[in-house]
Every structure is written in C-alpha cells, then in structure tokens.
Amino acid sequence: MTGARRPRLLFHVQHMLGIGHRIRADRIALACARAGFDVTVLEGGVPDGIHPEQPGVTRIHLPPARAADAGFSAIVDADTGREIDDAWRVRRAAACLDEVSAAKPDVFLVESYPFARRAFAFELDPAIAEARRGGAKIAGSIRDILVARPDRLKNARIAEKARTLFDRILVHGDPGFAQLADSFSAAPVVADRVIYTGIVGPEPVHGTGNPSDGEVVVSVGGGAVGGALIRAAIQARELCRLKDRPWRILVGPNLPDFDRPTDVPPGVAIEPARPDFLSLLSSASLSVSQAGYNTVADLAVSGCPAVLVPFAGPSGKETEQPLRARLMQAAGRAVCLSEADLTPQALAGAIDRAAGLFRHAETPYRTGGAAASARALMELVG
C-alpha cells in the first residue's frame, strides 16, 4: 500500500449456535485495528449484547440467521424463527453485496467458508467476486480443527474451491497442538495457502487467589447446549473430593430458561458469564466445561486443570470438540468425559482424576493468534 490511507479490512462472520465464533472474531478484529487497518465486521448472526464496542472496529448487522437447534437441522430467520426461504436469501445476499460494494475493502476476510457455512454460498460467492473485482485480496479464517467429514471427494471439492477463492487461509492454531490434516482429509490441497497463526487466545492474566485451594469453575460458553452439564455438575459436587471448595457456575446468555438451575445448594454460586473468565481460571483449582475453541484457549493460557465434556451434537456427528478434548487429555492438561457418558457419578470421577493433574505455569503453544493474523493480513496488502 502507498500513501497515508489506512488499509480497509472487511470481515464476514456468521455464528450459528454459540458465541465462540464471535469471541474469536472480536479478538482478530481488534488486533487488526491495532495493527493499522480500518476494520468493518459484517455480522450475520444474532447480536448477543454482551461484547463491548471495540475502538477502530465498525459493526454492520446483516438480517440475522441462526441454527434451528443443536443438531443444525435448518437455518432460520432469527427475527421470525421461520426457516429461511429464497426471498430471505435474495434480501440477505443483496444486503451483503451492498456492504461489500460500499466498503471497498483492501482485504476481505471470510470466516469458516467454504470449509463450513456452505449454506451461505448464495451470498458469499457473489460477495467475494465483488470484492475481488474491486482489487481486494481475499483471505479465509478457520479453526485449527474442523468438523470431520468422511466424504473425501467432497472434501477435495471444498479444498479446490478454497484454492480458487482465497489468497491466504489463516488457520487459527498451533500445529504443535493440532494440524488441519487431523480433521480435514484434503488439507494438502490448500497447504500452500495456509498460515498457522497460533491459537487466538486472550492476553495472560494473573489470578488473585491461590489455585491450590481455589474454587471449581463450571462454564458452558454461550450456554445454548450446556444445560445437561450444569445439572450433572451440581449433583456431582457432593460425590467428589472437591465438594468442600466453593463452586461457581457460569451460565451463558443463550442458556434456555428451562435449563437454568433453581434449586442451588449452599456453596454453589450461579452467575452470568463473566468477562474476567481467564482471571477466574488463573485462580481456580479446576475447570469443568465443554471443549469449545475459546474455552480451550483460555485453559491453555491459564494452565488450569480441567474436565472437558465436549459437545458432540444430538447425533454425535459434531467431531470438533471431542477431538480438541482428546488432544488436551493427551497433553496431560485435562480429563475427557464424553456427553454420552455424562452422569453425576461419572463426572465426579472425572473431577477426582483431574484434581490430580499437574498445573502448567506456561503453555507450550503459541497463543498470540490474533496479532499474528493481523500481521499476515497486513503483509497480504503489501
């Protein structure tokens, strides 16, 4: 780039069920703004209302869509609850295309697609083409672990499309923890486009308490699929060796009302999800959670021992969290318990085993993935 103008970055993000995609995108967007981009985030999910505005980042909301249920059986218009139809697609695609045309980005960063979010090809293919016609570089933004699909031919088609669409593919992970090939059979096809940014983790913080006698923190991310874990944790407390510790249960904004605990025993605090979650982990004796990207990033940074109960979906086809949990267990940082095996008794046993894990003062993984993403994108524009 020449001249004094800051390069423009347009970042398309579509979260469907939880808030993990939004958290990771927020970290990347802020890092890009700090690196010198004018950043616009084009959001297609439901605004969650819990993330503060970020300096240097403009947000534009497309007509919102979400998953109909935890099984991703359909995509619905978040304003009406009805399954999206062709008229909705036309309206949404037009809104997206208008924003790309108006933004005139130097870089168009697209989250997940086409490795996921393929149901949004109706808007993303024309948007990417429009950005390319305007001279933009195109980059993809994906997790280090994808939901694995057994159809190798389909994976090959996805990889070829990604090669056609993108100048760079940012894989937000440390290959020392997980590599794209672990969950995507056609990874070699896009190897020359891939940059491993490191895990998009938070800045390290120091807790205020002593982890050796700290509390147990139970969390469920956004909460959309966390009710069973919360119920099991409350009952497991009396069955495990940490029953005399304070327990803090954090419920996300998407936890259904019928899953919210009403009969809470003494010694257990129920609170909304907190922005100082990392600080809580840094002082906690143990974390009990699912195994989403951001939660595991927080665990990697804090070193807190954990029990991970990964979300696998109603049919067991959601493979990303189970693989992430197994890798954490193999690294000696967590005990993994499958959703299918979740009972208060089994969870209590997992807590007792995890309580004996070594607490890691430092992470061996690169966790500065947001800043590294910003550097890679700045290099892309020259």
Automatic annotation (TrEMBL):
Pfam families: Glyco_tran_28_C (PF04101)
Keywords: Transferase
Superkingdom of this protein's organism: Bacteria
Domain Glycosyl transferase family 28 C-terminal: 218-354
Sample GO molecular function, one term: hexosyltransferase activity
Record-given protein name: Glycosyltransferase
Transmembrane segments: none
Organism ancestry: Bacteria, Pseudomonadati, Pseudomonadota, Alphaproteobacteria, Rhodospirillales
